[in-house]
């Protein structure tokens, strides 16, 4: 019988995920081993690492795709019940929040990639289209970040009045708008271009600048400013 068919407790101590983490550090573990620690146990036919590998295979070994799985999708994997599915979902969300917290520590935004990382941690994994915006001072220091709306898989509503009202409250000098495309396509629609133009003109009336509008996906982004559309 191969080791894969044995319980993890029967393995040599240095091969067990928990002991391996303690002895060699967390970076020595594979994704499957890390997930196995979260799962704690497997099934009668598969140990925790095998269940973890099955889960990763369903997500094409892509943690970004895995983060999009809802509880029901996770539960569809043999060996994952409600409690384990919730544990995995919570762990993935902690990763997002860590990334967001790191972004909030940036003194000011100096590149479109920094803005992308910030928004990706908020809406990159969402399976619905969401719109958010941030307000900044004249040094591009973040003053606040706010949700606008959550729509379906292909559309969301952007309220220009709400954006400007909050920007005035924040005494902001600039605004950056962002929304995600769950489809993974970063190409802006005509509606995206129109709302960008309207917000830019409205902000100018209030003596503010629309610095950029981002389309966010899990792995890429489109910047209106970088592409000369603002």
Written description of the protein model:
This protein is α+β, with helices and mostly antiparallel strands and 230 residues long. The chain has 2 domains: 3-98, no CATH class; 109-223, 3-Layer(aba) Sandwich (Cytidine Deaminase, domain 2), CATH 3.40.140.10. The protein has 9 helices and 5 strands; from the N terminus they run αααααααββαβαββ. The protein has helices spanning 17-24, 31-39, 48-58, 63-68, 71-75, 82-104, 112-123, 160-169, 190-205; strands at 130-136, 142-150, 174-180, 209-216, 221-223. A 5-stranded mixed β-sheet has the order 2-1-3-4-5, with helices on both faces. Helix 9 (190-205) links the parallel strand 3 (174-180) and strand 4. Helix 2 packs across helix 3 (48-58) and helix 6 packs antiparallel against helix 7 (112-123).
Summarize the structure.
This protein is of the alpha+beta class. It contains nine helices and five strands.
**Helix/strand order, N-terminal first:** HHHHHHHEEHEHEE
Q: Mind summarizing the main beta sheet?
A: 5 strands, mixed
**CATH H-level superfamily of the largest domain:** Cytidine Deaminase, domain 2
Oligomer: single chain
**CATH topology category name of the largest domain:** Cytidine Deaminase, domain 2
CATH-level-2 architecture of the largest domain: 3-Layer(aba) Sandwich
DSSP strand content = 5-15%
Tell me the distance between the termini.
64 Å
Question: Helical percent range?
Answer: 40-55%
The largest sheet has its strands arranged as 2-1-3-4-5
User: Using only CA atoms, what is the Rg?
Assistant: 22 Å
Number of separate structural domains: 2
Mean of the pLDDT scores? Answer: 90
The helix count comes to 9
Based on Cα principal axes, name the global outline. Answer: elongated
Structural class estimated from helices and strands: alpha+beta
| Total number of beta strands | 5
- Taking pLDDT < 50 over at least 5 consecutive residues as the criterion, the unreliable ranges are none
According to CATH, what is the class of the largest domain?
Alpha Beta
């Amino acid at each position: 019988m191969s080791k894969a068919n044995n319980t993890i407790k029967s393995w040599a101590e240095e091969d067990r995920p928990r002991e391996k983490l303690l002895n060699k550090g967390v970076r020595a573990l594979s994704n499957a081993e890390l997930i196995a620690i979260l799962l704690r146990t497997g099934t009668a036919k598969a140990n925790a690492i095998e269940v973890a590998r099955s889960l990763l295979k369903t997500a094409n070994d892509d943690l970004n795709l895995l983060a999009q799985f809802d509880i029901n999708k996770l539960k569809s994997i043999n060996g994952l019940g409600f409690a384990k599915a919730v544990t995995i979902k919570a762990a993935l969300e902690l990763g997002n929040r860590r990334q967001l917290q790191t972004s909030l520590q940036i003194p000011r935004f100096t590149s479109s990639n920094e803005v992308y990382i910030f928004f990706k941690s908020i809406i990159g994994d969402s399976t619905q289209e969401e719109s958010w915006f941030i307000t900044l001072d004249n040094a591009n220091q973040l003053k606040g970040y706010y949700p606008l709306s959550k729509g379906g898989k292909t559309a969301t509503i952007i309220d220009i009045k709400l954006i400007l009202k909050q920007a005035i409250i924040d005494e902001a000098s600039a605004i950056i708008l962002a929304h995600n495309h769950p489809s993974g396509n970063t190409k802006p629609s005509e509606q995206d271009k129109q709302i960008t133009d309207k917000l830019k003109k409205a902000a100018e009336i209030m003596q503010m600048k629309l610095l950029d509008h981002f389309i966010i996906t899990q792995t890429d982004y489109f910047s209106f400013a970088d592409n000369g559309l603002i």
